[in-house]
User: Which sequence fits this backbone?
């Protein structure tokens, strides 16, 4: 399976997918860490893909999304943005309604 | 590997001549910047599209020689 196919499969099979550096428990980059924090604050369950484990996914996700950096968030197969956009949506109070509208369950935290 | 704030500003202004651009060197290391860009070209575009337009203006440097550019874009009236 190519990196492209793997990404297409992951975002089709999982409602919320975060491509990041490191893991949610041990993020390896400040921007990935902030993004995990935002999703955790909202009580969103997500599948995390550590791009540092696979150079093909690391390069592939940039081409797939036409987006030069990681982290990247996909919701229901749609690219939502990187750290800056998520932070902005969160601070403007737009992220929770956006996720709710997409049918993503938010747990009380 | 780094870029000066002036180079970043020039590339953005070349692509968006009307833009107000404010670049902050976050760490003083020519490698971690924040940029606020306001341009009429962003009108009617999603946030993702607006950021993609700026990344395009940076001609592939983002994620390469430019490691970290925190971006905030706003449409200008």
Assistant:
């Amino acid at each position: 399976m190519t990196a492209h196919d793997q990404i297409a499969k992951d975002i089709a099979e999982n409602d919320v997918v975060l491509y990041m550096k490191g893991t949610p428990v041990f993020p390896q980059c400040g921007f990935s860490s902030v993004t995990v924090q935002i999703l955790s604050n909202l009580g969103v369950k997500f599948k995390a893909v550590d791009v540092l484990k696979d150079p093909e996914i690391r390069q592939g996700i940039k081409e797939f999304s036409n987006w030069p950096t990681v982290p990247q968030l996909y919701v229901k197969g749609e690219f939502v943005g990187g750290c800056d956009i998520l932070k902005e949506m969160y601070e403007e109070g737009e992220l929770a309604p956006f996720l709710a509208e997409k049918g993503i369950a938010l747990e009380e935290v | 590997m780094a870029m000066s704030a002036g180079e970043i500003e020039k590339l953005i202004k070349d692509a968006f001549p009307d833009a107000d651009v404010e670049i902050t060197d976050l760490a003083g290391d020519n490698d971690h910047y924040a940029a606020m860009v306001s341009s009429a070209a962003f009108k009617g575009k999603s946030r993702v599209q607006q950021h993609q337009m700026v990344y395009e203006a940076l001609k592939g440097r983002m994620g390469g020689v430019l490691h970290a550019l925190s971006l905030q874009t706003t449409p200008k009236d």
Remarks:
- The longest strand of chain B covers residues 32-39.
- The two ends of chain B are 36 Å apart (CA to CA).
